[in-house]
TrEMBL record:
One of its GO terms (biological process) is methylation. This is Predicted O-methyltransferase YrrM. CDD domains: AdoMet_MTases (cd02440). The keyword Transferase applies.
């Protein structure tokens, strides 16, 4: 078993949500095709997606934000084992308050699903001219399109918020959005015009 499979197994055994296979494969293909060099990620968890993205190309640099201290520690360890500490920097913070002057080719938003608009607004000034935002979980396990199947009130509210955000990115004339409902848990690539 390779290191990335170990991380994936750990995530599944410990109920740490990570990107689905289809989603991460799609994202890595995009990174390679578009020759992405700089990435900001919101929601590191244990470093699975940042390690996968860094491995797309040897000169990719990643800043990644994670709010939970215990996950930051595991992510840093995994990144060290993968010999990627010089290219992936884990910031222990709330992504919606992370301050940087850097501009990125790709900003991957995968933290709190109800806060996607907040993160996007916060990082509007940090995306390169031809850069993109990428969002995962826009179908939220099929519940966004079948909200009556959501069991709890909290989930119903969350699903409603994701739907509002998804409708906004798909319809706002100031955005150029490619939404892929069949990839992973629903992925979108958004360019601000
Ligand atoms: C779906 S997981 C990220 C999975 C990871 N991108 C992967 O595929 O390997 C979402 C993570 O976002 C973190 N998170 C939630 N709210 C956050 C915030 N405001 N700032 C930073 N991280 C946050 C959670 O603790 C969780 O670890």
């Amino acid at each position: 078993m390779n290191k990335i499979d170990d991380i994936k197994n750990y995530a599944h055994e410990n109920h740490v949500p990570i990107m689905l296979d289809g989603g991460i494969e799609f994202l890595c293909e995009y990174i390679k095709k578009e020759k992405i060099k700089t990435i900001l990620e919101c929601g590191t968890a244990i470093g699975y997606s940042s390690i996968q993205m860094a491995n797309c190309n040897p000169d990719i640099l990643i800043d990644t934000c994670e709010i939970k201290k215990e996950l930051v520690e595991i992510a840093r360890k995994n990144i060290e084992v993968a010999s990627l500490t010089n290219r992936i920097k884990v910031h222990e913070c709330d992504a919606s308050t992370f301050q940087t002057d850097k501009k990125y080719d790709l900003i991957f938003i995968d933290a709190a699903k109800a806060q996607y608009k907040k993160y996007m607004d916060h990082f509007l000034g940090n995306v390169n001219k031809n850069g993109v935002f990428v969002f995962d979980n826009l179908c939220f396990h099929g519940l966004v399109d079948n909200p009556s199947e959501a069991k709890s009130r909290n989930t119903k509210q969350l699903v409603r918020k994701i739907k509002l955000f998804r409708d906004w990115i798909c319809n706002d004339p100031g955005l150029d959005t490619q939404f892929y409902p069949m990839i992973g848990d629903g992925v979108a690539i958004v360019k601000v015009k």
